[in-house]
Amino acid sequence: MLLEGKTIVVTGGNSGIGEQICLAAAAEGANIVIDYVAHPEATDSLIHRIEEAGGHAVGVDADITSASDLHAMVQKAVDAFGSLDVLVNNAGIEDRKSLLEETEEGYDKVMAVNMKSAFFGTQAAAKQFIAQGNGGLVLNISSVHEDWPMPGNLAYCVSKGGMRMLARSGGVELGPHGVRIVNIAPGAVDTPINTATTSDPDKLRQLDDAIPLGRPAKPHEIAEVVVFLASGKAAYMTSTTVTIDGGISQGSVGL
């Protein structure tokens, strides 16, 4: 199996893309640490599914907007499984407001969940990787909007643009320690964050028409790329972004 014996922490791991990452990585032999802040019953259900399939998983209730909680999350992963190999900064939100509409409260929340959590999560993981002495990997679930404008959702785009530079500059800083940072940039994905679009036939038709492959991604398709990047088959990749968008960023203006 591609991830046999590796320990992987997934923030926001009990729903959407995060849930599929946990399932896919566990199926390849990884020990899974599921970070969550809500719906503990969903975490328990996911742990049960993983264990029923012969895998190993634990849940950690950690507020990813708190640096101390993120460091504690990493320590709990080490306590549970002995070491840490991969952190997946997956948790994210958006509020779909323009520059002129955005509030300070809304901006702060988006930046805390999307950017601050990735920054200090990376810091916590990197310190553990360096202490272990054998390197490690941070995977950021970013977005095509780390580079591609999306009018009307500016705080989200700014947070993902920051994540872009976290990978590039952070990967350069940490490379001498064998610590790598790679971003994964999905386009439209059929997850709860996009329900307003996918549940509206007219909006979904417009979205499908804008994607060269004709449909949004399924969460498991993002998870499969995570598995590849977390495996030894991608060991020379760092400070870069892998785009998984069905070609949408090569087409019309962002939706």
From TrEMBL:
It comes from the Bacteria. It is an enzyme of class 1 (oxidoreductase). This is Sugar dehydrogenase. One of its GO terms (molecular function) is glucose 1-dehydrogenase [NAD(P)+] activity. Keywords: Oxidoreductase. The keyword Electron transport does not apply. PANTHER family: OXIDOREDUCTASE, SHORT-CHAIN DEHYDROGENASE/REDUCTASE FAMILY (AFU_ORTHOLOGUE AFUA_5G02870), SHORT-CHAIN DEHYDROGENASE_REDUCTASE FAMILY PROTEIN. SUPFAM superfamilies: NAD(P)-binding Rossmann-fold domains. Residues 6-187 form the Ketoreductase domain. Its EC number is 1.1.1.47. Belongs to the short-chain dehydrogenases/reductases (SDR) family. SMART domains: PKS_KR (SM00822). Gene3D superfamilies: NAD(P)-binding Rossmann-like Domain (3.40.50.720).
